[in-house]
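This section describes the prediction task in plain terms. A model, or a person checking by hand, is given the sequence of a single protein chain and must write out its three-dimensional structure as a string of tokens. No templates, partner chains or ligands are provided. The sample shown here is typical of the held-out split.
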Amino acid sequence: MNFSDQISIGFQQKITWMVDENGKSIDIAKHPMMKVRVKVDKPVRYFNMMRKQR
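The expected answer:
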């Protein structure tokens, strides 16, 4: 996942920033199970699943 990606949660989202579990700003999640925090355009609920659009 990176900043240019669109993600889908039943609707389109744009990632505006992303940080790792230590709070360090990152551009790319390096592996599938990496814990990241992202800021997106629209509100999402806790435990919503996000999926990268192909």
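For orientation: Residues 8 and 14 are 9 Å apart (CA to CA).
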